[in-house]
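Project outcomes to date are best conveyed with an example. Our students and postdoctoral researchers have been running inverse folding experiments weekly, and each run begins with a structure described purely in tokens. The record below, which covers 1012 residues, was selected by the lab manager from last quarter's runs and is presented without edits.
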């Protein structure tokens, strides 16, 4: 049997090695390396004996037992090269010339040791530099470093040298058994003895391969074994190679070690290619597992061809994936019968083979799934549909026999690969694992929950029942001290993804267990913990946050873009504003990672920033985020598009026209996939961000079509947002769509809050829609009980909308509105105050003098903030309500061009009437009591009808008798059709953006008619 070459030991042939042709002599090699090539020292010759004889020594004999030579253990008895090496090393350390006595001693020692004449030293040419000496010193230093590195592995090498005689003996024993005399074949006892020896040799060779401790020894076994190695041997060699490749220190720090591992891997792959069809289920599973692990450890150990072939072979062993065997007889695997042995014929009475897939044991099926998940990041070949179908059938049949570790590994692998096994498979898993959850380890529980959460991500797999979750949570709580930071984070995350909220006591124990683990958490772990708390509705105590901020802040720079975005999203979901140092560190860590952010990550960051109200973000950072969002818009989902716009709306950041054009182009084909909530949020945000930039006609038509399709599924907030967005974007719905909207809104009006009612009516008024009196009376009745709780803006919009629609909700409603406005007048801003006063004037309300005085004082206090148009509206409304402006203010408004000629004449007439009654006007910008004074008519009306009854307490509105209310209501309704623009509504109220059109009698007959 031809054995591979092995490097010779120093000073002659090493122990356990034969002196065969082609082995170089170390004596000649060392002499040539140290002193250069002389006349008698040249290249290694073909024979080891010839080389040693040329040096003057006797040919050494191979020794039986191994010895342990040192790096420079060759003494003078072993030859002169070692002495010369020691002398030159001492010379290099001393930096001087070697004394002649040492040179003579070295020469004498060398002659006495080997009897060979000393090679003549190389002479330097006159004038040559000393570079040759420097080269010798560098070579010597390099050899010393190599010897030092080899000293750490000398013991392992010594053990591997023992494999060579054992390997040779085993191979000879196997070959002798294969080539037994023909006479022995007829003797049953002799034949059985030979087969027993053969199987013993095969088993011993397998154990020998598994005990390999050096990649060079493994390569020796592969080269020497050749075709004598069967599938079992090669599987054992693959497992040994994985063990050698996992030695991280040697793989990283020693390039030669890594090169030998790669050489052994290359040789193993070459030999496996010819044995793939002889593999059994165990071998295929082991090799797939080893190949996936090797590829994950080192890119140089990846082989897509072998991986794809192994997947193909495993497919033929899975149920329903390969045709039945010929004759129905099971063919023995080649791993059980060594190569070269005659195959035994199958007996006729042999039982039928088991069904396909029964070859794989549960542990091997778990290895298959785990290998597919581990190789998913680098392998070019993926398991086919037929492979997965066979795997699910085989694993379903073996489900009760997996065991805790197998169940956890299979669930983790399927979750990582996002595979959906089906309802039957999931039910079998839940039924098999529920009684055994207490036997799982902490890591197994974390992997099981994480895998199930990933498999249920799309919502198309049955979730575990409450009893299963209770047992799972009880098993996890029993092992809380054994959880790692990653395991506990996966546990909390999986509970959130499975949609189960544990009791508060259990959540408190989980948070308490995570508190000491926070300093050891990675960025991914912090992200999962924050996500779990946000989805489960947990409000961690401040002590937990005090530990979370520094723990997560240290890992921000090392976190992935997705982990950073998820953490920020969770903070936004919980409305937990981070400290300023943490926020600055987050912004600094995320900005360079924006190019790697997915559409979901970018949209989550913008949404969370808006929800946290971070309107003071750096402009450069927000610009970079919007630029990345601009790039990913075409690949964003409807949920991501809606969240992105909602975040920008809350940040009050209006993107440019080019950005909006790209948004419209990207969202147009996805509009049919928008849910009702996403559609309403998108329209609302667009109405806020681009009120003056209507969308393209194609997008507007598609949006209206989707509104019509989603209208029956809209809830009360969705109806409000839809109408708001349509009004702000100036999208005119059809008559049929508006009729359906009003009918749906009437059905859900009792579910609307006061703010929703105000916004809905304002949107209808802004869009120019005209609901009939029944619909408006219904809204007035529903909103009256909310008037005292409305914000100033909402109350002003509600009053303004009724006035814009020219509908009076009744004296009782007006009195309640005036009372609510009087209580909150100090909180009204410029815009809200202008709308409130204009709406009350349009509804012909007559407040008392105290209410008017408070309103005038509020206008005086906001003079520095009111715009010209708002100031004009306030002054005109107060004049209509009975409060005359000062002449100086009239002149200022007229001179500034703020008032139209008709409005200026009306204001001048009111001022003259007030002067004739004895009330003098004061210059503008004076005290409130002199700036805006009640006219005589208003004062007399207040004195005659109310007297001094309202002098104490909050200002209140006029409360006439019931018959007076009915008379006033009838007069007001009779005048509404005739007043048109004659009463100054054009001055007090801004016109709707879309012109109102007259409603036909047929439209009035409808229950909730509307028109444009």
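After processing, the design step wrote out the following sequence:
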């Amino acid at each position: 049997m031809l054995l591979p070459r092995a490097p010779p030991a120093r000073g002659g042939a090493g122990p356990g090695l034969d002196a065969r042709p082609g082995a170089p002599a170390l004596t000649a090699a060392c002499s040539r390396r140290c002193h250069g090539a002389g006349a008698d020292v040249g290249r290694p010759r073909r024979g080891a004996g010839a080389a040693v004889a040329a040096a003057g020594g006797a040919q050494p004999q191979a020794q039986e037992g191994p010895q342990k030579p040192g790096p420079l253990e060759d003494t003078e008895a072993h030859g002169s090269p070692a002495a010369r090496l020691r002398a030159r090393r001492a010379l290099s350390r001393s930096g001087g010339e070697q004394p002649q006595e040492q040179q003579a001693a070295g020469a004498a020692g060398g002659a006495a040791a080997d009897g060979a004449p000393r090679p003549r030293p190389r002479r330097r040419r006159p004038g040559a530099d000393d570079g040759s000496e420097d080269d010798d010193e560098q070579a010597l230093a390099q050899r010393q470093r190599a010897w030092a590195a080899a000293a750490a592995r000398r013991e392992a090498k010594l053990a591997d040298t023992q494999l060579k005689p054992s390997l040779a003996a085993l191979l000879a024993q196997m070959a002798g058994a294969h080539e037994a005399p023909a006479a022995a074949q007829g003797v049953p006892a002799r034949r059985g003895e030979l087969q027993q020896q053969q199987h013993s040799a095969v088993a011993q060779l397998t154990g020998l391969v598994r005990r390999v401790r050096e990649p060079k020894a493994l390569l020796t076994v592969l080269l020497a074994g050749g075709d004598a190695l069967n599938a079992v041997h090669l599987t054992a060699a693959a497992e040994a190679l994985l063990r050698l490749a996992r030695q991280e220190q040697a793989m990283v720090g020693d390039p030669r070690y890594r090169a030998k591992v790669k050489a052994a891997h290359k040789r193993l792959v070459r030999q496996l290619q010819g044995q793939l069809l002889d593999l059994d289920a165990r071998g295929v599973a082991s090799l797939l597992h080893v190949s996936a692990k090797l590829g994950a450890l080192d890119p140089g150990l990846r082989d897509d061809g072998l991986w794809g072939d192994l997947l193909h072979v495993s497919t033929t062993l899975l149920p329903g994936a390969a045709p039945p065997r010929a004759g129905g007889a099971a063919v023995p695997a080649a791993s059980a019968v060594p190569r070269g042995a005659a195959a035994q014929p199958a007996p006729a009475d042999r039982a039928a083979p088991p069904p396909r897939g029964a070859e794989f044991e549960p542990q091997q099926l778990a290895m298959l799934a785990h290998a597919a998940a581990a190789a998913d990041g680098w392998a070019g070949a993926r398991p086919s549909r037929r492979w997965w179908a066979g795997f699910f059938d085989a694993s379903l049949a073996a489900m009760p026999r997996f065991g805790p570790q197998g169940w956890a590994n299979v669930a983790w692998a399927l979750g990582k690969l996002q595979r959906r096994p089906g309802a039957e498979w999931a039910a079998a898993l839940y039924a098999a694992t529920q009684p055994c959850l207490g036997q799982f380890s902490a890591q197994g529980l974390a992997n099981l929950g994480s895998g199930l959460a990933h498999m249920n991500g799309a919502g198309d797999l049955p979730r575990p029942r409450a009893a299963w979750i209770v047992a799972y949570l009880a098993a996890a709580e029993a092992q809380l001290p054994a959880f790692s930071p990653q395991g506990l984070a996966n546990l909390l995350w999986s509970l959130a993804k499975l949609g189960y909220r544990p009791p508060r006591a259990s959540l408190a124990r989980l948070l308490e267990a995570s508190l000491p683990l926070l300093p050891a958490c990675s960025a991914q772990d912090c992200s999962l913990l924050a996500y779990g708390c946000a989805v489960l509705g947990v409000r961690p105590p401040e002590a937990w946050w005090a530990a979370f901020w520094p723990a997560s802040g240290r890992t921000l720079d090392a976190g992935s873009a997705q982990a950073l975005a998820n953490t920020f999203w969770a903070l936004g979901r919980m409305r937990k504003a981070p400290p300023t140092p943490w926020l600055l560190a987050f912004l600094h860590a995320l900005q360079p990672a924006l190019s790697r952010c997915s559409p979901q990550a970018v949209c989550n960051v913008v949404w969370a920033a808006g929800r946290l109200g971070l309107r003071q973000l750096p402009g450069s950072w927000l610009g970079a985020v919007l630029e990345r969002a601009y790039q990913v818009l075409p690949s964003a989902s409807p949920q991501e598009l809606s969240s992105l716009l909602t975040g920008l709306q809350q940040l009050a950041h209006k993107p440019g026209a080019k950005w909006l054009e790209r948004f419209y182009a990207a969202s147009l084909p996805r509009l049919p996939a928008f849910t009702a909530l996403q559609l309403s949020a998108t329209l609302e945000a667009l109405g806020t961000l681009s009120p003056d930039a209507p969308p393209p006609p194609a997008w507007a038509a598609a949006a209206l079509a989707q509104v019509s399709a989603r209208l029956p599924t809209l809830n009360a907030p969705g109806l409000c947002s839809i109408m708001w967005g349509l009004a702000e974007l100036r999208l005119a719905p059809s008559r049929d769509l508006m009729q359906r909207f009003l009918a749906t809104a009437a059905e859900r009006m009792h579910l609307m809050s006061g703010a929703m009612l105000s916004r809905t009516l304002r949107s209808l008024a802004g869009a120019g829609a005209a609901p009939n009196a029944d619909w408006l009376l219904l809204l007035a009745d529903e909103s009256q009980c909310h008037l005292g709780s409305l914000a100033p803006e909402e109350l002003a919009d509600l009053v303004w909308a009724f006035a814009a629609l020219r509908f009076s909700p009744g004296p009782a409603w007006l009195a309640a509105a005036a009372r609510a406005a009087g209580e909150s007048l100090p909180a009204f801003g410029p815009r809200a105050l202008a709308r409130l006063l204009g709406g009350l004037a349009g509804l012909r309300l007559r407040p008392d003098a105290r209410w008017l005085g408070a309103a005038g004082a509020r206008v005086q206090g906001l003079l520095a903030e009111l715009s010209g148009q708002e100031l004009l509206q306030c002054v005109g409304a107060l004049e209509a309500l009975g409060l005359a402006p000062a002449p100086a203010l009239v002149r200022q408004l007229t001179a500034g061009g703020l008032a139209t000629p008709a409005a200026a004449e009306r204001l001048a007439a009111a001022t003259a009437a007030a002067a004739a009654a004895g009330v003098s006007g004061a210059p503008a910008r004076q005290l409130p009591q002199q700036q805006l004074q009640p006219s005589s008519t208003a004062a007399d009306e207040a004195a005659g009808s109310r007297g001094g009854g309202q002098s104490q307490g909050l200002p209140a509105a006029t409360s006439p008798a019931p018959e007076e209310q009915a008379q006033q209501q009838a007069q007001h309704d009779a005048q509404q059709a005739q007043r048109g623009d004659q009463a100054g509504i054009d001055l007090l109220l801004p016109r709707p953006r879309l012109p109102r059109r007259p409603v036909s009698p047929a439209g009035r007959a409808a229950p909730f008619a509307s028109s444009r």
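The mean pLDDT is 74. The two ends are 100 Å apart (CA to CA). The training component of this project remains on track.
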